[in-house]
Amino acid sequence: MSIVSEERMPELEKPEVRTKKRSRRSWSWLRDYDLYLLLAPGLAALLLFKYAPMFGAVIAFKDYNIAAGIWGSPWAGLKYFEMLFQDDKFYSVLRNTVLINLYKLIFQFPLPILLAIMINEVRHVAFKRVSQTITYLPHFLSWVIISAIFINLLSPQTGVLKDLFHLLGMQDIMMIADERFFRGVLVASAAWKETGWSSIIYLSAILSIDTQQYEAAKMDGAGRLRQIWHVTLPGIRSVIVFIIMLRIGSALGNDVEQVLMFYSPLVADVGDVIGTFVYRVGFGSMQYSYTTAVGLFQSLIGMILIVTANYFSRKFGERSLW
Amino acid sequence: MKLRTRGEVVFEYVNYFLLLLAILVCLIPVLNIVAKSFSDESSVVAGDVGIWPIHFTTEAYHYVLSSPKFLSSFSISVLVTVIGTLINVTLTVFTGYALSRRRLKGQKVIMMLFVFTMIFQAGILPTYLIVKQLGLLNSIWSLILPGLVSPFNMIIVRLYFCNIPDSLEESGKMDGAGNLRILFHIMIPLAMPVIATTALFCAVEYWNSYFDALMYISKQNLLPLQVYLREVIFSTSDANNNVEMVAQMQIAQESIRGAVVVAATLPIVLVYPFLQRYFVKGIVLGAVKG
Amino acid sequence: MQMRWNHGKRICTTLAIVLGAVTALAACSGGGNGNSTETSSSEPTTKEKVTLKVLVPNNVAEFPSGKDVNNNEIANGIREKTGFNVQWELMPKDAEAKNQRLNVTMASGDTPDLIILQNPDKPLFGNFAQQGLLTPLDSLLDDSGPNIKKLMTPEQWKSAKWEGTTYAIRTFNYSSATYGLLARKDILAELGLKEPKTQDDFYEVLKAIKAKKPDMVPYTANLAEGLTGLEAIASMFYPPVDFVQKDGKVVYTAALPEAKSFLEFASKLYGEGLIDKESVVNKTANIKEKLASGKAAMATIGWWEAQATETAAKEKFPGSQLAFIDPPTGSNGAFGMSKVSVVSKYFVIPKASKHAKEVVEFLNKATEQEIIDFISFGVEGTHYEKKDGKAVPTKEMDNIKYKVYYNMFDKVELGLQRMENAGLAPYYTPVANVAKHENVVDLVAPVPIVDQKNQELRDLRDQYFLKIITGALPLSAYDEFLDKWKKAGGEDVVKALDEAYNGKK
Fold first, then answer.
1. Helix, strand, coil percentages in chain C from 3-state DSSP, rounded to 5
2. What kind of fold does domain C4-175+342-423 have according to CATH?
3. What is the ipTM of this complex?
């Protein structure tokens, strides 16, 4: 709280300054001084809690030692980055990370949009609300619980779907511990957990669409599907583009907790991602400099990807992210 | 009422059918957890419980709701969520609106600053040192302030403001309204659906977060509910060789786990239905705006 | 238009109220905070008493309402009996969070005066010692800790050292037992089978169960959590721990020729459906459920998991008898499950502490029998009665379960007594009887290369072993594993451990 009020302090001093200088045309931006005041507290929090700690990333270039502290530790140059690029394991981990994210982008990402549109098309208000509320329930379950649910579901001999597996002749396949299915299980469980939750953002975007547009489309004789195509989807396009860009930017990030919960040594070759790699390296042995270097590499690639994606989206006539 | 075409009727049926399917898929596992929490322990361990309780009992809830730790962490969570959401949403709307005005100098750079933090996150250690420097350790503010202004929410709000036609702002200026007046009297009422959405996102984020608490809070009576929840869920198998733990592990049973999950989730789940009225209002306002 | 302005005004007022409420609440909670610190500092602390901050492991015990970790009978009693104003703090329970928290605390320089680490935290102890974050204790122990020094043999003190200097104080745990073979004895009896004594017996028993009980898996395991679920089978081939002393040298058991025979046997069992095919996704909770619900007949399980499982099985099948049986002996005579070291805990004093001497004095005092008894059982006459030299708990004992947080120096006899009092002897004793093999890693001081590589090497082993057992890879892949293990530095780890255990050659 103290931070917020401190930042507000200039507010008290400013009015005087403003009246003096307002006459001068070159200070026209002062006319919007109140917009800057609106911005100030949020920006201050950002600088204080997100940017100030970033200096800590310097330990990626140092041999960090707790006793010596962040500044006192000796410089290591690019040692930890070289270590990373020379690690054979890193490349398989990188590949898995990118692939899992790509699958999620292709198969999981469209589902919430679809669900939002379907819910929006429901006319029965009570049903609409009930379906929204129920589909977003799984978001609140933690991965421990969800992994237990999926293990139970996919156990071919004792699980809920055992009869189905027998029918398909799959009674010996443990999908969760099978390299062929593991990534699919990750995508499916993430979809189950997040589809309803993610659809909320699209639903709220759909609400901002001018209802007259629907009337106009109806006048033209457009059916429901054509209304969706020509009015709803274009209306939420900016949100869709924003979320795609974010996903592209986090192509090297993963839900570590999810992977850890489904992980077993049998699927190490397809399921080990950067997050779990860092988790294991960092856990017993506390190699801070190394894990920070990995994080820095992840962020750098993410930054490049998001800037590129933003460039192309602008080229195709979308709004820039910034 | 207009006559519906055949295609329209088919569309409705298919839509209802698919949504019903989605509801069932999401609901059944949740019902299973609820059913377990109302069943007696041996039925749960034996794996007999489906979507309906067996040997119905509320014992697990008695245990959970009489636990002092549950009650204290529950109130901490409510406090953090309510205060945090109020501050956070206010700042998000302010920041999002300011940054949606193109004439604002430096708007581009500041937007980039926000986007950047979504990808580049500072480490635990330097963040801890900042929180410590500010004297926030062992205070609920350490759970609120570091999360202030989520870039994601801010960008969503900003997108919404950007999409509101400029003519509205101009007509406000014609009436002699300043920026703040325009924001409070024209923009915020129009943006209620998106504000409700960000409020929901914020509240859920505060409610579900636990790692900050584990780092910044060492006073047991200031720990939030999620910490308690995770302790109960993860409490198996590390009891290894500690007789006090073994004896007490018999308490942390499956049905109690179910009860804790239900008791810790229900309050936040109920936020959404409450906010849904703003979602409907948005439609009305949308019409007015045209 | 008019309508909209009104609406706006309403929102304005709402916002104003909200902001007001926030400020009010902020003041409120701030005040609350102040109050709580005040109460803790206004406790009866005389000037001459030094305040010692102690960070201890978390546990499941809850404090009754109105009490907390620094305000209860036990904490107050310890202050009174030792003369030190000890302030306790609990670590996070989550292992990852605990490690992070310890690290940030150390890095911030604002450390407690004493940290009590548990056995699995050994890498953390090694790491702190290596980075020079701990107070060397040798001279302090000589001056102020005579009772502490007497507790352990010089051999046992070795594990508290780092490069020859003592950085930790250690104590004893009553239990060295870990995993045992839990079986449905009633099923064995029903099918006219004897408890298996040899590898062949074992195989025949599993086969018989499979043939006569088609709905029951003979043996289930929690392989999703590692290889411990097969310990009863592995113990017929080699000591089921990572590193053992053999012929005067430390060896890695997974690299022994016996490991290959184990893989051959285990993959045969798996292939014939004698080991649960779902083992690879099972966690401990799943095998407990399978045993309790009659879906499985046997499993390797920790002794502490058995009571709940047996109770649940009894409720479902009143005639069932789920009990630990001895693991069979291998054809090469190999026998015995893993055993953990009775030396436990690391009491470390961060270098940033200004009260190292007082901490040692406090701990020295805490070794006294009276204090140990008090922490173990509470107050005689209130929480327990003495009968035949044994402590028999009264009902009051249930109200001080939180005493577990203050457990410092323990004695094996007292631990066993508490275990018996809790009714756990039927599960503990049979497992303790077959606990034979100790991991060399547990017996030596921390070795950096071991802490760094252990996890990676274990992952590699688990991956190959599980793939071979489940048939995803042929038995010949074992040689590939050995190559990769060597490439990953496995031999260096063995060498380092050998030097640490047998001395430099």
1. 55, 15, 30
2. D-Maltodextrin-Binding Protein; domain 2 (3.40.190)
3. 0.85
